[in-house]
Amino acid sequence: MTERKTDDFRNSALQAIRIERDAISALENRIDSHFIRACEVIMSCKGRVVVTGMGKSGHIGHKIAATLASTGTPSFFVHPGEASHGDMGMITSQDVVIAISNSGNTSEVVTILPLIKRMGAPLISMTGNANSTLAKEATANLDVSVETEACPLGLAPTSSTTATLVMGDALAVALLEARGFSAEDFAISHPGGSLGRRLLLRVSDIMHTGERIPSVSEETTLSGALLEISRKGLGMTTVVDAAGNMSGIFTDGDLRRTLDKSINVHTTPMRDVMTRNGRAIQPDQLAAEALHVMEGLKINALPVVDDHGALVGAINMHDLLRAGVI
Question: Which residues are registered as beta bridge partners of 221?
Answer without folding.
Answer: 269
